[in-house]
Amino acid sequence: MRIAVGADHVGYDLKDAVGGFLTRLGHEWTDFSPRVLDPEDDYPVVGSQVARAVAQGEFDRGILICGTGIGMCMTANKVDGVRAALCGDTFSAHSSREHNNANVLCLGARVLGVGLALDIVRDWLAAEFSTEERHHRRVTKMALVESAGSC
Ligand code: RB5
Question: Which of 108, 112, 125, 135 has the fewest beta carbons closer than 10 A?
């Protein structure tokens, strides 16, 4: 899988751990994070870059990391075609794929230990969008909200 990864300064260390894990799992990943740690590397910049790259089909999935994951998630979900999920547990991680067809995973580096974060990444990448009609109907309605403002 081709995965776009991005972190702000708070998520930087967890991003390196996630990147190493992705390599060990055999995925290709590109790091959109700033090369130098800087408290002014505000999450909307890298968050929107990763989100756009996923929405444009350059990558299969995106993973975004900041302190809580919240700012990254809010930012990514402003990009049309992105369904970003903030996950702090493995049930939410696989459900966000199975029910919501999430294409971006957001993690909170100040919230999660590395072990749990990697389990979340593993389960999120392994899970597939359900084939059940009701989930497709609901995701289609989300897209209508995006394009038309309501469903
Ligand atoms: C940066 O201090 C922090 O606000 C950011 O990493 C993130 O938690 C925002 O949602």
Answer: 135
Nearest of 18, 46, 20 to residue 33 by alpha carbon: 46
Amino acid 40 reads E
Whether ligand 1 lies within 6 angstroms of the CB of 70 is answered as: yes
Give the residues of the chain that fall short of pLDDT 50: none
Q: Which of 8, 38, 111 to mutate to test the pocket of ligand 1 (most atoms within 8 A of CB)?
A: 8
Residue 83 half-sphere exposure, CB side, CA atoms within 13 Å?
20
Q: What would the pLDDT profile of 118-150 be if each residue is shown by its tens digit? A: 999 999 999 999 999 999 999 999 999 999 999
Residues 6+ apart with CB under 8 A from 119: 90
